[in-house]
From TrEMBL:
It comes from the Eukaryota. Coiled coil: none annotated. The keyword Cytoplasm applies. Keywords: Autophagy, Cytoplasm, Cytoplasmic vesicle, Endosome, Golgi apparatus, Lysosome, Membrane, Metal-binding, Protein transport, Transport, Zinc, Zinc-finger. This is Vacuolar protein sorting-associated protein 41 homolog. Residues 13-25 have a biased composition (Acidic residues).
Length: 853
């Protein structure tokens, strides 16, 4: 059982007598001793009762005095009521009227501001008094007192007090709680509830443990709301709900009844109860003979928060309280009062008053910091930054950073700096110097501000120098990631140059130096380094900063590095680097020149036409597979020069192409037959040329070569009559696969016949279909109306007076004429032709329509 000692103004005695145990479970409440005027009062007197109002406190003592206190415990008013113990103080909801009863039988009810009210002396001790909650209102001037009887006092219209007995005969009344129209009281037998509105007693809740003396272990009553009463007596707790009875069940029964929704036993004796949302705050008296406690800890009261269940309860928190003189107190000496508005709980004992309150967000953060849960504390502060009063988010963050540094988790500490330090430049610089002191500048480097918010350049330079000493790669990474404006670029360039003097071939430093030159806009220096290193970013640098004028004399270097990228770049920027300039630079490197001119030719066959003659030799030397396609596509290539080069190098295929292009097909065919000895290529060549004389030469050359004859038989069937070849074959010549070749010829012939017949059928069918369509069209009627005109005189084709006789000629071509506008018939008697269609040399339609009337 953890002992909780907290509070902002706790007395030294309260803290010294407590032994706090570390616990991972956070307390639910915090405590502080009510001091100021209370301390002086309790030094001379002892507290007997106290009542809590939202605005003030009312404290009664054993010497018959009543003190009105503010929330801090300062005395605001003092009343000398009696010379003996004050038993009960009652306040109405407004806090304007007070009821007081004492051990000598005195009862006083008066206004705090008027002093007018009720004063009465009874012949027996009055243990309790309770005012109507709305006592201020004139029609609710009611209060009850409890001694041997429960008496109700009401002021009538004559301004006199009328007394009536509500209950008697069951021993002394020890507690009364009035809520709305319901009065609950406890006597030696049990707890009763009375409805002041219907003047009916609703229920009787019997006491469980009758062996306990009611005066030593008094009943605790507490209203949770207008219909829920909490009863605590001995070690038993019951939660009673007042409900409306169904009208059909009324008969002679009260209109309300009570249902006990929860009843359970506790481990210790109950001294007080108070609601906390759906939970309960219970003040326990721990009896000395309890086996669970050691000698020193035996009689301290406990304040627990429990969650009621139907037949048991669940403990939420438990705090043992060290109040003054706790060793001398009994169960009846403790009281628990609460303020509903602020969730404040007052533990009253004869010589001490302790205030318990719910922990706020500041207290939660305090506990997290105490347990070194800095990350949770920081998160809680950020979420509730508007509600916290004693903490600052940045200070918590700094504490978290300090904690991480102490643990040696420098990377996490540096990462948190971004979030915690924000825009505070002084804090940033202090942290940087602290990381420098502990030798961890690298850890914080990647988290430094680098946007609109920046530190002094010296800070960044200090970190760069640190990296240069030990980590070239890390230095290069920072240069790439940090904007060049963060530091003095020239100073860093000089430092890198000094390091390169000791290690001139270090690629990392050279690359970084090139990037620094780029930031400083000294692109020519950066370009030299990139080319020297053959760095992939060289082309991006050229494009980005338009350095084409700087690379005119470096084209060979670029080509040596990456031919493809270099050529693409040069061709894409011909307006900045002319073809002539590139060719001039590559003149001494023909293999590179060929790559450039070849890509230029692929893009546009005409752009580099003046270099086509040079390209012939380049293709022949470095790229023969592309020579023939070049010769075919180029229209600017000198054929004689090309033929000379190809003949010198014995390029047969290229020579054949050039000879055929120059018109010397027979020589080309001869080279194919003699040098290539490829009959298929020869046949293909003859097909391309489609020359009868060429076929004759091919047959003549092949007639004494059986393999060639086989090839011809297999391929010439659609170009030359095979009979001509067969007739010229010598008798007795053995020809490979002759039978198959002849079968193929016959098969090809049959296929040609079938194709011709098929085409003929299609032609006849199409002709018939079109003829039928034309016949249907020409036999269709033609509409003639007043909108039609004569194609000769352009007058309306129909007369305005249809009664008169007229004659109209309509041709199948849909042209119309007045008969008198047509010339006489021509060479064919009785046949008339359309003048328009005859003029256009169209064949006349058959059948002429003549309309007469």
């Amino acid at each position: 059982m953890a002992e909780v000692e907290q509070g902002r103004k706790q007395s030294e005695e309260f803290t010294d007598e407590s032994e706090e145990e570390d616990s991972e479970e956070e307390p639910k409440l915090k405590y502080e001793r009510l001091s100021n005027g209370v301390t002086e009062i309790l030094q001379k007197d002892a507290a007997s009762c106290m009542t809590v109002h939202d605005k003030f406190l009312a404290l009664g003592t054993h010497f018959g005095k009543v003190f009105l206190l503010d929330i801090q415990g300062n005395v605001t008013q003092k009343f000398e009521i009696s010379s003996v113990k004050i038993n009960q103080i009652s306040l109405d909801e407004s806090g304007e009227h007070v009821g007081i009863c004492s051990e000598d039988g005195k009862v006083q009810v008066f206004g705090l501001y008027t002093r007018e009210g009720f004063h009465e002396n009874f012949d027996c001790p009055i243990k309790v008094v309770a005012l109507h909650p709305q006592f201020t209102r004139s029609n609710y001037k009611q209060f009850v007192t409890g001694g041997n009887k429960l008496l109700l006092y009401e002021r009538n219209w004559l301004n006199r007090w009328k007394m009536s007995v509500l209950h008697e005969g069951e021993g002394s009344i020890t507690n009364i709680q009035w809520r709305a129209n319901l009065i609950a009281w406890a006597n030696n037998v049990g707890v009763k509830i009375y409805d002041i509105g219907t003047k009916q007693r609703i229920t009787n809740v019997l006491r469980d443990n009758v062996s306990l003396r009611p005066d030593m272990y008094p009943c605790s009553l507490c209203w949770k709301n207008n219909s829920t009463l909490i009863v605590g007596w001995g070690t038993s707790i019951k939660i009673c709900v007042v409900k409306e009875r169904n009208a059909t069940e009324m008969r002679d029964l009260p209109s309300r009844y009570v249902e006990i929704v929860s009843a359970f036993e506790t481990e210790f004796f109950i001294s007080g109860l108070a609601p906390l949302a759906d939970q309960l705050v219970t003040l326990y008296f721990v009896k000395e003979n309890s086996d669970q406690m050691d000698e020193e800890f035996r009689a301290r009261p406990r304040l627990d928060i429990i969650q009621p269940l139907p037949e048991t309860c669940e403990e939420i928190s438990s705090d043992a309280l060290t109040v003054r003189n706790f060793q001398e107190n009994e169960c009846r000496d403790y009281r628990l009062e609460h303020s509903e508005g602020e969730s404040l709980f007052y533990i009253i004992s004869p010589k001490d008053i302790v205030v318990a309150k719910e922990r706020d967000q500041d207290d939660h953060i305090d506990w997290l910091l105490e347990k070194k849960k800095y990350e949770e504390a920081l998160m809680a502060a950020e979420i509730s930054f508007k509600n916290i009063k004693r903490h600052d988010v940045q200070k918590i963050g700094m504490a978290y950073i300090n904690h991480l540094v102490e643990k040696g988790d420098y990377d996490s500490a540096a990462r948190k700096c971004q979030k915690v330090l924000g825009k505070n430049m002084d804090l940033w610089e202090n942290e940087v110097y602290r990381f420098k002191t502990i030798g961890q500048l690298k850890a914080i480097s990647q988290y430094l501000p680098r946007g609109d918010l920046r530190l002094r350049p010296a800070i960044y330079e200090m970190i760069l120098h640190e990296f240069l000493k030990t980590d070239y790669e890390g230095f290069a990474t920072l240069i790439r990631e940090w904007p060049g404006e963060l530091y003095n670029n020239m100073a860093i360039v000089q430092t890198v140059s000094d390091h390169l003097k000791r290690d001139p071939t270090n690629r990392t430093l050279l690359t970084t130096l090139a990037e620094l030159y780029t930031y400083d806009q000294r692109y020519d220096r950066a370009l030299e380094i990139y080319l020297r290193l053959r760095h992939k970013d060289v082309y991006q640098l050229i494009h980005k900063h338009n350095l084409f004028s700087s690379i005119e004399d470096k084209i060979v270097l670029l080509m040596d590095f990456d031919k493809e990228k270099a050529v693409d770049m040069l061709l894409d920027n011909e307006d900045k680097l002319s073809t002539d300039r590139v060719v001039e630079e590559l003149a001494d490197r023909p293999e590179l020149l060929h790559v450039y001119l070849h890509k230029l030719f692929k893009r546009d066959h005409h752009k580099g036409q003046k270099y086509h003659e040079r390209q012939i030799g380049l293709y022949a030397e470095y790229d023969r597979p592309n020579l023939l396609p070049f010769l075919r596509d180029s229209t600017h290539c000198p054929l004689e020069k090309a033929l000379e080069i190809c003949q010198q190098r014995n390029f047969v295929e290229e020579t054949v192409f050039l000879l055929s292009r120059m018109g010397n097909c027979r020589r080309a065919l001869q080279m194919i037959m003699e040098e290539l000895e490829d009959v298929d290529k020869a046949i293909e060549f003859a097909k391309e040329q489609d020359d009868a004389e060429l076929w004759e030469d091919l047959i003549s050359y092949s007639i004494d070569k059986p393999p060639f004859i086989t090839g011809l038989l297999n391929n010439i069937g659609t170009h030359v009559d095979p009979i001509l070849l067969i007739h010229r074959i010598k008798e007795g010549m053995e020809i490979p696969n002759l039978r198959d070749s002849l079968v193929k010829i016959l098969h090809d012939y049959n296929l040609q016949i079938l194709l011709r017949e098929g085409c003929k059928k299609i032609l006849v069918a199409d002709s018939l279909s079109l003829l039928q369509k034309m016949h249907r069209t020409q036999t269709r009627g033609v509409r003639v109306d007043e909108e039609n005109i004569c194609e000769s005189c352009h007058a309306a084709i129909l007369p305005s007076d249809m009664a008169k006789p007229f004659s109209v000629m309509v041709f199948h071509c849909r042209h119309m004429f007045h008969k008198e506008c047509l010339p006489s018939s021509g060479s064919i008697p009785g046949v008339q032709f359309c003048n328009i269609c005859s003029a256009k040399k169209r064949r006349p339609g058959h059948g002429i329509l003549e309309i007469k009337q």
